[in-house]
Amino acid sequence: MSKTKEITTTQVTIVGGGLAGLASSIRLARKGIEVILVEKNTYPFHKVCGEYISNEALGYVKSLGVNPFDFGAVSLDRFWLTSPSGNKLELDLPLGGFGISRYTLDYELSKVAKKEGVKIWERTFVKEIQKNNELLMINDKLNEKTNNENTFLIKTSKGNIKSQIVIGSYGKRSNLDNKLQRNFSNKNFPYIGVKYHIKTDLIPSNVIALHNFWRGYCGISRIEDDKFCFCYLSHKDNLTDFKKVENIEKQLFTENPFLSKILKEAEFLYEKPEIINQISFSPKKLIEDDILMCGDSAGMITPLCGNGMAMALHSSKILSDLLLLYFENQINFNNLKSNYQKSWNKQFQLRLKAGRTVQHFFGGRTSSEFLVNTFKHVPAVARKVVSLTHGKEF
Ligand SMILES: Cc1cc2nc3c(=O)[nH]c(=O)nc-3n(C[C@H](O)[C@H](O)[C@H](O)COP(=O)(O)OP(=O)(O)OC[C@H]3O[C@@H](n4cnc5c(N)ncnc54)[C@H](O)[C@@H]3O)c2cc1C
């Protein structure tokens, strides 16, 4: 039998090894649960992300076995917001956060996961997930194995996996959304994301700056090794109009004096940026065909909130706590699903909604000007918006 025809059996399969997947895998493996994590890339690798993590996640990341400050993370506690005309607001961030690249953070977490016994299938692509695959069921019956809840067959580029539980932590957008016919997967995906690492002395090391340009905004903040992450979200119409990301930068960034100066004076460290397209912030279903979604696969907050990573980590904590109860036979699968849905809604539903609402004010010349002025004159409004889009330490 060729290797690709073999079926590997496990208790939990995690599809996607970003923060949600890695954190879940570590917590489950620590309690002796068999986990396979499938990731299409090989660690370490770069990812489009602003790389500012809200401090609400710091204690949890440390509890997983990675102290970001041991790997050069930088504290960030001040916020700058500018409109395309250069109107600027400055604000202290009450809880603050830290800056570290995904290249480093995901890599360090993957090392911990491997040490804890997680089997990581790197450079492996999940093609399809089938629940109660007929052949598996027949096979189980022949071998007199009882199947009290579900069995999943996960088809990957390196072979098939049979699993009792599947966590979908494959991020904002994947081939799997179409395969699972998720309700948002035929909707419009209006945004693209672009990331560079740069060196600059134009931004203080404790500042996260958010600069608006026409139909987009760019976040800049410090990460390890004296570098800054320079990451922007743009409406795809900019790409239609200007054809290439370099042209968007040349044509639209020059309007905002802060972005213009950075573009001229900073040292850009990649030859080419990391780019992702087809980003959408539409609501998603948390549980699809009994696959437990986690992180961005469950719902993605607009990046201007700087809170997607903390939410991905928080959802992994909620889900893995429930899965531990499930494997200790304290709750059944139906209880697990309903408790997960309840806790997730309580923690994140309002935040996602607030993020979507605030996003409307960004990227427009008049609307972002209005937002900066309102925040400047009534700082209580700015503080309220920050608190609505953030959670508490977990
Ligand atoms: C432009 C932009 C800027 C952002 N800035 C910030 C910020 O500053 N702060 C913040 O907190 N959040 C930010 N976010 C959001 C943040 O990046 C996400 O919320 C976070 O990465 C979610 O983590 P995750 O684990 O759910 O998904 P991801 O980190 O995306 O991980 C998913 C993984 O699944 C893998 N995968 C996908 N499909 C398959 C498949 N079929 N088979 C195998 N593997 C697969 C991918 O390779 C990936 O590694 C930003 C997002 C964007 C778009």
Provide structural commentary:
The chain has helices spanning 19-30, 58-64, 102-115, 134-142, 175-179, 236-242, 245-252, 257-265, 308-327, 333-359, 365-377, 379-389; strands at residues 7-15, 35-38, 52-54, 74-82, 88-99, 119-121, 126-131, 152-156, 159-168, 191-199, 207-213, 216-222, 228-235, 267-268, 274-279, 287-288, 291-293. It is α/β, with parallel strands linked by helices and 394 residues long. Strands 3, 4, 5, 10, 11, 12, 13, 14 and 15 form a nine-stranded mixed sheet that branches. Strands 1, 2, 6, 7, 8, 9, 16 and 17 form an eight-stranded mixed sheet that branches. Strand 8 and strand 9 form a beta hairpin. Bound molecules: flavin-adenine dinucleotide.
How would you summarize this macromolecular structure in one to three sentences?
The protein has a single domain, classed as FAD/NAD(P)-binding domain (3-Layer(bba) Sandwich), CATH 3.50.50.
> Which cofactors or ions or other ligands sit in this model?
flavin-adenine dinucleotide
How many discrete structural domains? Answer: 1
Secondary structure: helix percent: 25-40%
Task: Look at the structure and name the CATH superfamily.
Answer: FAD/NAD(P)-binding domain
Strand portion? 25-35%
Low-confidence stretches: none
SSE topology string: EHEEHEEHEEHEEHEEEEHHHEEEEHHHH
- Give the total of beta strands: 17
Number of helices: 12
